[in-house]
Amino acid sequence: xxxxxxxxxxxxxxxxQRVFGHDGFRGRQxxxxxxxxxxxxxxxxxxxxxxxxLCYQVPALCRPGxxxxxxxxxxxxxxxxxxxxxxxxxxxxxHSDLPEGEARRxxxxxxxxxxxxxYVSPERLTLEGMLSRLDMLPIAMFAVDEAHxxxxxxxxxxxxxxxxxxxxxxxxRTPRLAxxxxxxxxxxxxxxxxxxxxxxxxxxxxxxRPNIRIEARPREQExxxxxxxxxxxxxxxxxxxxxxxxxxxxxxTAEWLRADGxxxxxxxAGMDAGAxxxxxxxxxxxxxxxxxxxxxxxxxxxxPDVRWVVHLDLPRSPESWYQEIGRAGxxxxxxRALLLYGAGDIxxxxxxxxxxxxxxxxxxxxRQRLEAMVAIAEAATCRRALLLxxxxxxxxxxxxxxxxxxxxxxxxxxxxxxxxxxVAAQKLLSAVLRTGRRFGVAHVVDVLRGRLTxxxxxxxxxxxxxxxxxxxxxxxxxxxxxxxxxAHGALDVAVENHGELVPTEAARPxxxxxxxxxxxxxxxxxxxxxxxxxx
Length: 535
Ligand code: ADP
Ligand code: ZN
Known about the structure:
Keywords: ATP-binding, DNA damage, DNA recombination, DNA repair, DNA-binding, Helicase, Hydrolase, Isomerase, Metal-binding, Nucleotide-binding, Zinc. Its EC number is 5.6.2.4. This is DNA helicase RecQ. The chain is of the alpha/beta class and 535 residues long. Helix content is 41%, strand content 15%. It has 23 helices and 17 strands. It has a seven-stranded parallel sheet with strand order 3-4-2-5-6-1-7, with helices on both faces. Helix 2 runs parallel beside helix 3, helix 15 packs antiparallel against helix 16 and helix 20 crosses helix 22. The longest helix is centred in the last third of the chain and has 18 residues. The relative contact order is 0.09. Bound molecules: adenosine-5'-diphosphate and zinc ion (ZN). The site of adenosine-5'-diphosphate has 12 residues, from helix 3.
């Protein structure tokens, strides 16, 4: 290894070209770098793949002393260090998995001023012994990567990150740069407060990923829907990811995909470390490999050619969804993100929020996030615009302030038609009430369509006034009405039971005709009746 000799110190452009081999900065990188080189602190919000690393690597090399980088994952640190060493930068990682001799050697190098970048785990950095070592050394800057881990509002809270608040008090003259891909406003404020960055600027990068086509559809027949996507993307080199809501579903999905002849594997937090490593390795090398994973699969995916990401279940927030679909198309080539969801998902997620032991304030936030996600899934306007707004980014708009269609989401490509669904909603809600709120959507649809099934006969539901009043709509359309009523909050699904439909308070004004309700005409209308309790 050729240690970085500091020849270009001080000049970001030189460092960028000579050390990293790039022609120019991207987006807001240059602004951030100049700010930090001049001694400033701040928070960088850039999406995954946005180029956050250079925001601290370049200033660390431009300023005297060592750049100290806090990172939550050993694998991530090791990757970065290996890449830096290849570029001739003296870098090392200090964490708990290191043999003692190795740790001692790194600390020796640190004291001799032989390191330009030191990656360190948060718990290691905040040890008193480590802090007092750093007190004696010239520090170029501190970088806190994955800074959202400091916030309890997020899903990635790490208690070890809380201790990092000490840095601002202990090293008040050293620049501190926090970096994250999570731009949810509350998390952002929390990071700034926790890390003492409240007075420092926030650099918000371009969150739009125009090369990713985003689509959301009701989950009618998930296997057929996934097969369609696979057909449409066949022939393109690269990998795919199927995010599943449970561990069992990752295994089941991988299994049927394999039976289809696909190279599919599963990944979830319940697997042992060896199996996880193996899955990571197979994913990073496979030609057209498909990873069926829970959200545990994420950090450290470095394949630039993930061609598509599918969600089989509703993500819990726009932030999670964005982060997960952002793993597609990092090479800038066209990629796809498909979300499949059902009313059951919405109801289940709502129940989980309500029943979680979280504090009321936290619950309120979780609720808002979930509802924002539901709104995107059910959107009749550009999904990209809705998503970007969740990150505080205003999408381009026309003179009237209406968002300009992005041209690369399903809504913009084929705008759904809306119809006055008040009567349909009334019919469905009254069928639910008249059947005694004890049945799932399949039976309710049978009643509406006037089908004399065994169950209908058994409960004499053919004698109800609502029997057969819904012959004008297809089964799929009725399920669409039910799902949209769930999304609107007028209907609940008893997910802990047998998926019975239960009207809520919000159903009353609709039933009384006091509230009009606009519904999307369902685009996918499978032929023939489909017996399913999926809403
Ligand atoms: P993030 O940490 O924000 O997810 P990275 O720092 O890993 O993103 O950067 C993503 C990719 O973009 C990397 O392959 C990196 O080399 C590349 N990249 C970043 N900045 C530039 C630049 N200015 N010019 C060319 N490539 C860049
Ligand atoms: Zn759009």
